[in-house]
Amino acid sequence: MTVFFCAKCGVELTPDLVELPAVPEVSGRDRDRDKETRLAPSTVPRGHYAIDPEPWGAPFTPPTGKPRPHHPRRLLMPPELTDWTPTGPRNTVVVHPDDLPDLRLLDQGGPHRGCCGPLGTGGRNMACGCGVLVATLAADCMGPHELHLDPVRMYAFDTKGAER
Ligand SMILES: [Zn+2]
Ligand SMILES: [Zn+2]
């Protein structure tokens, strides 16, 4: 069990969460999306977290011409960044957005907003009460539904005793 805190102000960002061995595979099937919001089910269920070992989110590098490996949870990209490769931080902590109700979404607008929610392609967009952007939310009707805590803007405390 682990609790995550803001590295700046020390506030508790999450309840006690159980680690998953890996980021869950998501179906990406249209029929699994919410009938009204069209939002995909959160990649990580409530009460859990998973470490994403791959570089995730902004910044992105231009396509090289080589085919990219298939990524089932690939972000929906703004048109001008189609096929760009994420080179954001490794080891982000993927959580259920509803487990962090106190974070505020900074509406980045422009190309990083989908038709009904943030694409998550514009960098960190979720602020702690102290103002620091601690996480990135992707929650549009066509992409994945994930909240990624930035590994350098929070710290984890193992509630069984040892700090990680
Ligand atoms: Zn804070
Ligand atoms: Zn949408």
What does this structure look like?
The protein is an all-beta fold. The protein has one domain (1-164). The chain is built from no helices and 11 strands. It has strands at 2-6, 18-19, 48-52, 60-61, 85-86, 92-95, 104-105, 126-127, 133-139, 145-149, 154-158. The radius of gyration is 15 Å and the shape is globular. The termini are close together. The structure holds zinc ion (2 copies). One zinc ion binds next to loops. One zinc ion (ZN) binds at residues 6, 8-9, 11, 128-130, 132.
Key phrases:
binds zinc ion, 164 residues, seven-stranded mixed β-sheet, 0% helix, two-stranded antiparallel ribbon
**How many domain regions?**
1
> Which range does the strand content fall in?
25-35%
Bound ligand species: zinc ion
- The overall pLDDT average reads 92
Query: Number of helical segments?
Result: 0
Strand arrangement within the widest β-sheet reads: 2-3-6-10-9-8-7
Low-confidence stretches: none
Return the string of H and E elements. Answer: EEEEEEEEEEE
Number of strands: 11
**Category by helix and strand content:** mainly beta
* Outline: globular
Which radius of gyration do the C-alpha atoms yield? 15 Å
> Sheet with the most strands?
7 strands, mixed
What is the distance, rounded to the nearest whole angstrom, between the alpha carbons of the first and last residues? 12 Å
> What is the share of helical residues?
under 10%
